[in-house]
Amino acid sequence: MQKRSLGLFIKALWAHYQSANVSDSASVLSYYMMMSVFPIFLIVGNLIAFLRIKSAMVLHYLKPVLPLPFYQTLAPVIRSFLEQGSTGTLSIGIIVTIWSASKMVAAFQRSINQAYGIHNTNAVISRFFSFIFIVVLVIGITLLGLLFGLSEAILRVAKPWFQFSNQFTAFIGNIKWPISFIGIFVLSYILYAIVPSVRVKYRYVWAGALVTTAGWLGLGQIFSLYIRYFETNVTSYKTISTFIILMLWMNLAGMVLLIGGIVNATLQEWFQGEIQEMHFVDQIMDTARHSHQKHLAKKKHSGQTKAKPTPPKKKPTNKTATKAKPAAQPKNRSQLQTKRPPVNGQKNKPMTRH
């Protein structure tokens, strides 16, 4: 048996890292993530237009938040969206968002499968379900990470509108850590359980989810510090740096997601050995089939172990000889009588003993 050590584990982890091609895959993820952001803005803008919200109100609250070059560029676009909502633009935004999200999902799943040593996956139905689940989970994780990093800025913007008290702001600041940690951990756990096209051992998934949670919270905190110290007096070149920081954040966030999957793949191979190829849809069906068979076997076993009813006693047949009951004996000596044959037609008289 091969001796296990920390050095061998790090070597195996590095081999999975190279197999997944993390650097290139993270760049692809960040590119398609950025491609999904602007169509989402189109969708949100058109939906707000259908709600009949005045453009002056929205611009009034966006102007103090956005840098001046940003505001001068986006204000006409926002005003156009809110005053002239277009179903055509909404449809284009939805189509582009779905396309970019599907590309992002395909790149992420391909990289995770390579980390597990799986290179060819052609299950169309499984990939369709993966697309739905992964898009929802990635959006949830991204929103939690951004809310964790931008919660203070969001509260400052929303405070004049909703008249938040200082106690409420302090309460949100206190609970954002546990809520963000639990939310990102749960979503990451589900993500790593359903994405790989292998038979995933769920007891090893928590490690990668923990790595992803810590990495995303750390990135959110760094991004929050950048927003805090550079949100005022932003010039044009600093606006460009903001885009660069955002792209860097997306690249690092994608890298953290991939590293979490690599940790899970390394742990499962380290403790289980060979990894079996099976998508999560097939795994769910296989688990349900095994559970059903186990239930039937248990039911059959319990039916066999029940006590059988005792058969009724058989009545004695004619072939069986029955013993004659002994004649009843008199209790007193005086009751003992003997009979003698009649003589000359006289009746017999009982004869007593003296």
TrEMBL record:
Q: Where are the transmembrane segments?
A: 30-53, 88-108, 128-150, 170-192, 204-227, 239-263
* Regions of compositional bias (Basic residues) in chain numbering: 291-303
GO cellular component assignments: plasma membrane
- Where is this chain compositionally biased, Polar residues type? 345-354
Supply the PANTHER family for this chain: INNER MEMBRANE PROTEIN YHJD (PTHR30213), UPF0761 MEMBRANE PROTEIN YIHY (PTHR30213:SF0)
For this entry, the protein name equals Uncharacterized protein
Q: Which domain of life is it from?
A: Bacteria
Q: How does it sit in the membrane?
A: Multi-pass membrane protein
- List the lineage, top down: Bacteria, Bacillati, Bacillota, Bacilli, Lactobacillales
Q: Where does the record place Low complexity bias?
A: 318-332
